[in-house]
Amino acid sequence: MDVFFLLVGLLLLIFSGDFLVRGSVSLAAHFKVSKLVIGIVIVSLGTSAPELVVSLDAALKGHPDISIGNVIGSNIANIALILGLSALVSPIKVQKKGIYFDWVVMMVASLLLLFFSLNLKLQFFEGLLMVFLLTLYIIWSITKSRKEKLASLETPPKPQYKLWLSLLFVLVSSVGLIYGAEFLVKGASAIAIKMGVDERVISVSVIALGTSLPELATSVAAAARKEMDVFIGNIIGSNIFNIFAILGITSIITTIDINPMVLKFDIIWMLALALLLFIFLLPLRKGIISRWKGLIFLTIYVAYIYLAFTTGIL
Fold first, then answer.
1. 74, CA 20 to 30 Å: which among 66, 167, 249, 276?
2. Domains and CATH numbers, the chain
3. How far is the CA of 311 from the CAs of 66, 73, 266, 300, 305, in angstroms?
């Protein structure tokens, strides 16, 4: 039954997250919101919704390791697994202007998380600061895109669905996210106890991978079609949202206790991968994530998961 709850929870999160994005984008179009705002704000928050609901539900129910492990594990998977697999399918060219600034923001977010974690707690004012910084980043992203005169992004799109159906998608998917998180946290915590490992290990591996599956499927498909124009930028943006939005909002609502191993082990791997990504991106704007670099990322991900399990045995 524990595995059943875990799988049902993952499926609910994946499909609910997808329909939440579809419904939100269509709903925004009905109210004449530009594609630019939809892309930067609505889609980014929509794709982060599964992680947000899981982290919040876990924190409120006394499973802080799942709450923070889900975010850190997702950030590690975004770079090491998703970028690695996508690069193996097709080398990724760095074409997005301003990728350096996006990377710096991601690194600042990661270092802030490390600093805030030193007392083994994420609290209200720290969460407030993270949400404030996220707001500044969104404003900057929209302003930058406008200055680049992306006219096609400024034209309000046509709704994909009728208004009532868009609303239905948003409402039903929101309920699906809530129950998906409920089942996932329940199944994962029970499995961790039976396997004799920390909840942290299950969260940085199984849960993080599960909540990252939509991004993984989309990224590999985009690599196969060679549609990689803003791919790395989206990966970096996702990592920024994961820290500032998910942990920020969650810690505003409730204090998150941090497992010392998260500080000593998981965050260090996340920071190391961020640095390695920067090295692999050089020279900026002309760099390429080649297949051999993708293989290195994948090897690192396998090593991280293996070490996470071996160090997380109770």
1. 167
2. 2-311 (1.20.1420.30)
3. 16, 15, 11, 16, 10
